[in-house]
Specification:
CATH topology of the largest domain: Rossmann fold
Distance between the termini: 43 Å
CATH superfamily of the largest domain: P-loop containing nucleotide triphosphate hydrolases
Number of helices: 13
Order of helices and strands: HHHEHEHEHEHHEHEHHEHH
Structural class: alpha/beta
Number of strands: 7
Radius of gyration: 20 Å
Length: 276
Amino acid sequence: MLPVSDQPDLFGESPALSAPTPSVKVRPAAQPLAARMRPRLLGDIVGQEHLTQADGLLTRLIKSNRFGSLIFYGPPGCGKTSFAEVIANETQSRFVRINAVMSNVAELRDILSTARRTPETPTLLFIDELHRFNKSQQDLLLPDVEEGYVRLIGATTHNPGFYVNPPLLSRSHLFRLQPLPTDAVASVLARALADTERGLGARGCTADAKVLADLAVLCDGDLRRALNALEVIALSLPEGAVLTEKELEVFARERRIRYDADEDEHYDTISAFIKS
């Protein structure tokens, strides 16, 4: 059990931020499939029915638009980022997203300063991998969270009880996300294959339910990984092809390839599969 780090911030300075725009923008076609297929509405999120049910606490908080800070805790690819983006869309908030691995104190101060200057537009600050912020970085958030200038949404794969400062944790609603079941992942994969607007529908590729379920199992319930794997496989085949177990064998041999937090290796992975 590791405590929150007291190490000083070691990240370099980042460029000054321009004022963020309200809500989440429409995603360009060049983005990875997992990003393009992220839900737009709370009802589109799969596999987390204990959080999305109509009479549930989270649903009521979003509908009333009266909530403070939220922390989502769960395994990779289970929907933490999707919840943050859906909440920003449904509450028409200014959405600012940072990753704790790459952010620094200077960037954080700039975001908080902008939020204080524009209190008429609610700022929703989404911090991915919140557990990677050290104690001083987390403490920096407290005054603006307390005063309501920003509403924090933190996402973490680590137990917040050990990695989030008690003062910040006490000011937040904590929601635990479950690993996604195979059928939930497979249903999104099927939708992505058919979706001509955001998915792979323009390629005309198809796959039977067993192939998609097997791909979901190979990805251990990580929906982001499964969607990006589906895209890799589909782009390596001719248009109109049928995805089979043979393609999954290729993916299974390469399943140790790791996507980093920002999916920077995504395009290199696609290239490697096409060349193979």
